[in-house]
Amino acid sequence: MTKLQEKADTLDLGLYLHVPFCARSCDFCHFYQEAPKRADLEAYLVGMENCLSRIKLDRAATTAFWGGGTPGLLQSRDLDRLGRAMVAANKGKVPEEWTIEMAPATVKRDKIRVLRDLGVSRLSMGVQSFQPELLEALGRIHSLDQVYRAVELFHEEGFENFNIDLIFAIPGQGLEMWETDLRKAIEIKPAHISTYCLTFEEDTALWLRLQEGKVKKLEEDEEARYFEISRKVLGGAGYQQYEVSNYALEERACVHNLNTWRMQEWLGIGPSASSQFGMRRWTEPHSIEEWLTGFADGSPKYAEEVELTPGILAQDFLIFGLRMNAGIDLRQLEKRFPGALPAGWKSFLENLLSEELAILNGTNLRLTNKGRLLADRIGEEILGL
């Protein structure tokens, strides 16, 4: 079977652990999640321990990311238990970068101390907005007091490397409100800020309101104004954009995500977790029961499974690589995936350059500011080549 590269051990490996529990589903969220009942939590933790104990890695993972759901919803003893199991599975090594997502209401001092002692190096918190009416529009249950208290705890416990998520194009939000949110975010001194355009995912509460005509989605040119404000305000405060939706202080970019966008390898563990490893991609079932049953039977049933080809990987390398400000090295792409570029790539590239959506400097290809505003559309066109 063809490897992702000439030597598999030259690829960075990441671990992704999915914690599928949430106190309540936000109106915009479409991820699989469960209510945090203790019996389900215990079954999940036992399943994770068993799964992790059976992993035989050929190399230690350099990054780890715990997403959800709300990983921070776990009690401090549960976080410690799961963290120790993961480190043991990782050849006893703490990943160089280890990120855990936390909702503002779940941040407690005892949890922060457990995470710090485990070796967690990065926290990520979904703030979404600093304005109560917009939080209500999103169905978020945290208060601004909880946000500020969480940030206070981060600083007190030495967690300066933390990210906050913000959302724009929320119904009822205007450009001035967005700029206010950005400036309030800067005031709390995160190392990293992620800015996401609100999406209306099918079968969410927000999507239903859209179908009923109760809310309206912005046009593409209106969304672009929010992008421009983000780049201006955050750039002026020292946060450099390194991907369409992500800004960071120097040397604070999320390495786990960078490796993912560069088509490295990762193993996803837990219900609904996705993996890319050994020329396969697969997603675990979106159910704790199905996940546990498949694991116990030794015959897991995946929600999705794809055999990868150099063509698929080259295409994704292009799509995700062009979302990064650094762009991609076409020479490296050809070395990793010889002859795998899409058939229409050459003419597509010529169009990108002629329309000033991209710049080619030697073998480095990157989107212009104008091109990054159209990154989603460019990605869709690459898929169609």
Structural class: alpha/beta
Shape: globular
Order of helices and strands: EHEHEHEHHEHEHHEEHEEEHEHEHHEEHH
The largest sheet has its strands arranged as 7-8-6-5-4-3-2-1-9
Ends distance: 25 Å
Oligomer type: single chain
Q: In what range is the share of β-strand residues?
A: 15-25%
Report on the structure:
With 385 residues, the protein is of the alpha/beta class. Helices cover 41% and strands 19% of the residues. The protein contains 15 helices and 15 strands. The strands form three sheets. It has a nine-stranded mixed sheet with strand order 7-8-6-5-4-3-2-1-9, with helices on both faces. A hairpin with a 2-residue loop joins strand 14 and strand 15 (364-367). Helix 1 (38-53) packs parallel to helix 2 and helix 6 (175-187) packs parallel to helix 8 (220-236). The longest helix has 17 residues, at 220-236. The protein is globular. The model is unreliable at 1-9 and 26-33 (pLDDT under 50).
